[in-house]
């Protein structure tokens, strides 16, 4: 027996949701995805229950949809464009030379392999650009970190461990340089305050007076794959 036995669409006013019957679940829940699709999963076999649950959560769903409308999704046409420092460049541009050569060597339209080439490009650019910015701010903040690492992350722009290891998301290369600087200063500040206290934010704002605005801009960006 498979876990998902029912997969259908239900409505609440003009809203539509995909209903999935999942008998192994203990509770029902609703998820609003970044593309604004709505999914309801429930262990209850009665469709009437799911419809009532949908109506009950309508207000919350609309709030999530509104948040999605405020978010800017960064994406490009694969093999035609590349997103770099908040700007979209043609794949034929000088900025995309490294990526263009990798795609030419691949000679394939396989999406998984093409996405892998893009990821490799962003990692290469991250290793080229980010260390100098981290060093710059570490010097003026009079702070020392142990190691700087790079990896693609789905939900975090960066992290700083108690062992003074800073990890930056390679997808940072897609956003404007002022936002990159904010993430760097944010993670360096964690070398002093391993929390998000007032002292922490004061330290960040001491070096980036516009930190609150930059933080808001960053929160409103959703990175596509």
Concise summary:
The chain is an alpha/beta fold.
- Strand portion: 15-25%
Shape-level CATH architecture of the largest domain: 2-Layer Sandwich
CATH secondary-structure class of the largest domain: Alpha Beta
How many domains is the backbone divided into? 2
The secondary-structure element order is EEEEHHEEEHHEEEHHHE
End-to-end separation in angstroms reads 32 Å
Largest sheet: number of strands, sense, barrel closure: 4 strands, mixed
* Helix count from the secondary structure assignment: 7
**SS content category:** alpha/beta
Helicity level:
40-55%
CATH-defined topology of the largest domain? Zincin-like
Shape: globular
The count of strands amounts to 11
Compute the CA-based radius of gyration: 22 Å
Read across the widest sheet, the strand sequence of neighbours is 1-2-4-3
Structure description:
By secondary structure, the protein is of the alpha/beta class. The chain has two domains: 6-70, no CATH class; 81-223, Zincin-like, CATH 3.30.2010. The chain is 43% helix and 22% strand. The protein has seven helices and eleven strands. The protein has helices at residues 47-56, 58-70, 97-106, 111-141, 177-189, 198-207, 211-219; strands at 6-12, 15-21, 29-32, 38-42, 72-74, 81-84, 87-90, 147-151, 158-160, 165-169, 221-223. The strands form four sheets. A four-stranded mixed beta sheet has the order 1-2-4-3, with helices on one face. The chain has a three-stranded mixed beta sheet with strand order 8-10-9, with helices on one face. A two-stranded parallel ribbon has the order 5-11. The chain is globular and about 60 Å long. Mean pLDDT is 88; it is low at 1-5.
């Amino acid at each position: 027996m498979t876990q998902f036995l029912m997969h259908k669409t239900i409505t609440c006013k003009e809203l539509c949701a995909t209903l999935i019957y999942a008998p192994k679940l203990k509770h029902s829940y609703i998820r609003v995805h970044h593309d604004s699709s709505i999914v309801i999963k429930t262990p209850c076999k009665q469709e009437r229950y799911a419809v009532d649950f949908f109506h009950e959560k309508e207000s919350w769903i609309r709030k999530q949809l509104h948040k999605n409308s405020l978010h800017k999704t960064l994406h490009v046409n694969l093999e035609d464009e590349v997103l770099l420092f908040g700007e979209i460049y043609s794949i034929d541009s000088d900025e995309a030379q490294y990526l263009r050569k990798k795609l030419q060597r691949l000679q394939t339209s396989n999406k998984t392999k093409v996405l892998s080439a893009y990821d490799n490009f962003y990692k290469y650019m991250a290793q080229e650009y980010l260390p100098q910015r981290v060093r710059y701010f570490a010097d003026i903040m009079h702070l020392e970190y142990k190691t700087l690492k790079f990896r693609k992350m789905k939900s975090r722009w960066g992290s700083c461990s108690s062992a003074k290891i800073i990890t930056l998301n390679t997808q940072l290369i897609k956003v404007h340089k002022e936002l990159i600087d904010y993430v760097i200063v944010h993670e360096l500040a964690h070398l002093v305050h391993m929390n998000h206290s007032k002292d922490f934010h004061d330290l960040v704002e001491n070096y980036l007076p516009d930190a609150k605005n930059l933080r808001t801009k960053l929160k409103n960006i959703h990175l596509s794959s």
